[in-house]
Structures are given as structure tokens and as C-alpha cells.
Amino acid sequence: MFNTQRSRISLTLSFALVITGFLIFLFFYIKHEFNTTRAEVTEDAMVTRVVAMGKLELVKYAMKDVVEKKELHMILPDSKVLFVAVGEVTACIDLTKVKKDDISQSKDTVEITLPQPEICYVKLDHQKSRVYDVSGVWFPDKTRTMVEDVYKLAEKKMLTTATEMNLIGKARENAGLIFKPFLENISGKKVVIRFK
């Protein structure tokens, strides 16, 4: 009888230890599952239009600029965003605008009239550009609006700076340096380039 009671106690203890071990395992498993996050991304890409490209990029200015935007307030502290913008401005010639009438040739010369160079794009490098400081902004929506505004200001500033640094003139110059030897090699004639 004493033996049976001892075996019941040891069986109950064993069962209690197994249940306790299982509960501890279950606790840590559930804790792990609650702390684990999984990202699920669903993408549905579609082509909305196909555009034929005919732009010859002739010059690209890589730029870096520091832009600070302040909003001055009467009562509250002034809002400020400090942004370091890294990007590029590219000038090109749209070769799709060249018509048959723009090309004339004689015995030893080819004359081509190209359209005026234009700004192809202004592009900020989002990997390298950084917002360094946002201060005096009380609401998250206002922060987002100020940061979006400073991105637009940085693009405009880059475009203005590139224009002041004669990007279009450099594109015209490069058209002669790049395009002229290419056409001379193909045609075997002297090439004269003019702009509309």
C-alpha cells in the first residue's frame, strides 16, 4: 500500500513536471510568435504606356546642395527643416524632332540642324539625400508637409543652379564633340551641326 501510494505520488509529480514543462514551452513559443513580425508585400505592376525614346543625353551635372526651410511664427517657435540634397541635372537633345528637311548634304559635307538642347530631368538621389534636422514642428503631418516641400525646393534649386552654370550651353558644345565625330565616321564626310 505504501508502495502504491509512492508510485502514485511519483506518477503525479512526473505528470505535473511534464505539464509544467509544456506550459513553459508554450509560454516562450507564444512570446516568440508575438514578437516575430513578418512583412508581406503584394505588388501588381502594370505598363500604362510605352513611350519611344529618342533623347540623346549630352551632359549631366552631379550636384550637392544644403537647403534650409524656415517657417516663422509669431507665438510658437519657428519651424525649420535642414536638408542635404544629392542629385543630378541632365541636358539632352530630342532626336525625334529631327526631320528629313533638317539634313542636307553636298559632295563632301553633311549639314544637320538639331533642335535646341533641353533639360531632360532633375533627379534627387533618395539614397544619398538626407533630412538632417527638423525642429519646431509640433504635428507629424506638418513635418511630412515641410519635408515634401524641401524636396521640391531642392529640385528647383538644382535646376536653377544648373541653368546658371550654363548646362544648355555645355550640352550644345558636347553635341559637337560627341555627335559630330559619330556622324563623320558613318557618312565619311565633313559634318556641320547647327541648332534651330
Compute the number of strand runs.
7
Characterize the biggest β-sheet.
Answer: 4 strands, antiparallel
Oligomer: single chain
User: Radius of gyration in whole Å, from Cα?
Assistant: 34 Å
N to C succession of SSEs: HEEEEEEHHE
- Portion of residues in beta strands equals 25-35%
Total helical elements: 3
> First CA to last CA: what distance?
115 Å
Low-confidence stretches: none
Q: Could you report the average pLDDT, rounded to the nearest whole number?
A: 80
Structural class: alpha+beta
Please tell me what the overall shape is.
Answer: elongated
Percent range for helical residues? 40-55%
Q: Keywords for this structure?
A:
196 residues, alpha+beta
Write the topology of this structure:
Layout: H1 2-35, E1 55-71, E2 79-94, E3 103-105, E4 109-114, E5 118-124, E6 130-135, H2 140-164, H3 167-187, E7 190-195
Parallel strand pairs: 4-7
Antiparallel strand pairs: 1-2, 2-5, 2-6, 3-4
Describe this structure in words.
The structure is a single chain. The protein is of the alpha+beta class and 196 residues long. The chain starts with a helix and ends with a strand. The strands form two sheets. Strands 1, 2, 5 and 6 form a four-stranded antiparallel beta sheet that branches. A three-stranded mixed beta sheet has the order 3-4-7, with helices on one face. Helix content is 41%, strand content 31%. Strand 1 and strand 2 form a beta hairpin.
